[in-house]
Design goal:
The protein is mostly helical and about 220 residues long. About 80% of the residues lie in helices and about 0% in strands.
């Protein structure tokens, strides 16, 4: 155990960075200025504008595209889980390849299997997030279909339906974002297969890239104008 302290520290750093980033983005005042948070405002705008339209075929087509994109990521997660299981099964072959490299990067078989299991768990988490997001988008589509007609747009029932639909819409987007975040951090996690020191670097790189997209990208600036 004493020889694995760097691995333990690297994985702890990885988990801590993921947790801190997620909490900051979703549960702090700072996160309420993110690109995802700004998009939530436009979700409400969309639902309110939909209430004023009698013909809503275009809105349903947009919902279908959102559902299809979420289904794609959910199926991709399952493929990634299968790839991780295949990598776990080929432990001996993988270690043989690593031991043939000029720099010895081969861990013990037990450590290699732990790394593979961790990667599989990340993709399983992503699948559940995408699958639930897909289900929520289905519910949103139902609520859009149940939207009161434009002639009732000023009623209390219509306002309550807009709020209800918007909240469910935001929840669907939030779970989709969590699934994508798992994909991003899975890329950083791959650095552990090289070295725990590389995991430190790749984790920091993922946090910087994802933070920049949420708070300093051109898209973020455009949504704030």
């Amino acid at each position: 155990m004493r020889g694995y302290w760097v691995d333990i520290a690297a994985v702890g750093f990885f988990a801590l960075e993921w947790a801190v980033y997620a909490v900051t983005l979703e549960h702090t005042a700072y996160g309420r200025d993110s690109l995802s948070a700004r998009m939530n405002g436009y979700r409400e705008v969309w639902v309110r504008n939909l209430l004023h339209r009698e013909t809503r075929m275009v809105d349903m087509q947009i919902m279908a595209s959102l559902q299809n994109g979420t289904a794609f990521f959910a199926s991709t997660s399952l493929i990634a889980v299968g790839g991780g299981l295949a990598l776990l099964r080929a432990t001996n072959d993988a270690l043989a390849v690593l031991s043939a490299l000029p720099i010895d990067l081969s861990p013990s078989p037990a450590l290699w299997e732990i790394k593979c299991v961790g990667l599989i768990l990340i993709f399983i988490y992503a699948f559940f997030k995408f699958a639930w997001s897909y289900r929520l988008f289905n519910y949103v589509a139902i609520l859009l279909g149940a939207m009161p007609p434009a002639s009732q747009k000023g009623t209390q029932a219509a306002e309550a339906h807009v709020i209800r639909t918007t909240r469910l819409f935001e929840a669907a987007g939030r779970h989709f974002n969590r699934g994508q975040r798992a994909f991003f951090f899975a890329l950083g996690y791959l650095g552990w297969f090289v070295s725990p020191w590389v995991l430190f670097v790749t984790t920091a790189a993922v946090v910087i890239v994802t933070w920049r997209r949420q708070f300093a990208s051109n898209a973020w600036k455009a949504m704030g104008s």
